């Protein structure tokens, strides 16, 4: 998990060779491999922090930023969004779903514990 947290922190800080830096940098690039690394690392963090009350502030801020601002950064009509359009839309939805999972402690595709226990 330490490796995943290091990768996640570097990504959230827009370190070189990361997905977020590619979006905002001079290249304006949607790097599919970098997106996959980011998604997998965020998923690992969600699994590790699922149901915990003590969420690190840097991580919470990063999940929030990514889930809201990737869509904004790439919404400019001149941004070269990846094809097909469905892939791009699915990626944005996945980032929102991961943030939801991180903050709620359960993911959108499982029944919430509160409802399941009734």
TrEMBL record:
Domain of life: Bacteria
Name under which the protein is recorded: Uncharacterized protein
Source organism of the structure: Promicromonospora aerolata
């Amino acid at each position: 998990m330490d490796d995943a947290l290091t990768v996640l922190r570097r990504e959230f800080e827009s370190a070189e060779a990361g997905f977020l830096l590619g979006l905002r940098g001079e290249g304006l690039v949607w790097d599919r491999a970098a997106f996959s690394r980011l998604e997998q690392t965020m998923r690992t963090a969600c699994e590790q922090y699922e149901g915990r009350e003590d969420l690190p502030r840097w991580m919470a801020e990063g999940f929030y930023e990514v889930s809201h601002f990737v869509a904004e950064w790439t919404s400019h009509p001149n941004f070269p969004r990846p094809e097909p359009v469905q892939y791009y839309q699915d990626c944005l939805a996945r980032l929102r779903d991961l943030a939801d999972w991180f903050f709620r402690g359960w993911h959108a595709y499982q029944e919430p514990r509160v409802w399941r226990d009734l």
